[in-house]
Design a protein that fits this description.
The protein has 164 residues and is an alpha+beta fold. The protein has 2 helices and 9 strands, in the order ββαβββββαββ. The two termini are 36 Å apart.
């Protein structure tokens, strides 16, 4: 009997892996006002099969992706450099955008504050790294593709760092 390959890939392309969010990108004229997106996540992992012949359980992988997107779903994404204050559980945000200065006050619980600008590329990286941190050691690559509307998507790959 021929030996089976020791490594492989799993892909989840499921309509339930989606989220909605609002954001602004002051450095891009068209996106410098608050606007929203409905996004869909596809994920692929690569790795070495364990003793039972699997890389990672589909159900576990899907639950980790859902956990990641639950932190983002129906939130206003804010890069922390635009946060100018926190007042009684309310986040104060200020930035220069199309047609002038913006100053927002919103419930902190409704914001996803990140170290990065909320581009689809950066959001894909966030999800990819989030998933990788929760995968078993035999998973070596996590690839995430996020659609941001019809015909627009970003893909990123996170590779497990090996200590030499």
């Amino acid at each position: 009997m021929p030996s089976l390959p020791n490594s492989g890939k799993l892909r989840i392309d499921d309509d339930s892996l989606n989220f909605d969010y609002a954001h602004f990108l002051p450095h891009i004229s068209k996106c410098s006002t608050i606007h929203g997106h409905s996004s869909r996540v596809e994920i692929e992992v690569e790795g070495v099969k364990d003793s039972t012949g699997i890389i990672v359980d589909f159900g576990y992988l899907k639950s980790v992706v859902r956990e990641a997107i639950s932190k983002l779903d129906h939130k206003i994404f804010v890069c922390k450099k635009y946060v100018v204050g926190l007042d009684g559980g309310r986040l104060v945000v200020a930035f220069s955008g199309r047609d002038g200065e913006y100053r927002l006050e919103l419930p902190a619980s409704q914001a996803f504050v990140a170290d990065f600008e909320s581009t689809v590329e950066n959001i894909a990286t966030y999800i990819s790294e989030y998933v990788m941190e929760r995968m078993p050691e035999n998973v070596t690559v996590v690839r995430v593709c996020i659609s941001e509307g019809i015909g627009k998507s970003a893909e990123t790959t996170t590779t497990r760092r090996r200590d030499d």
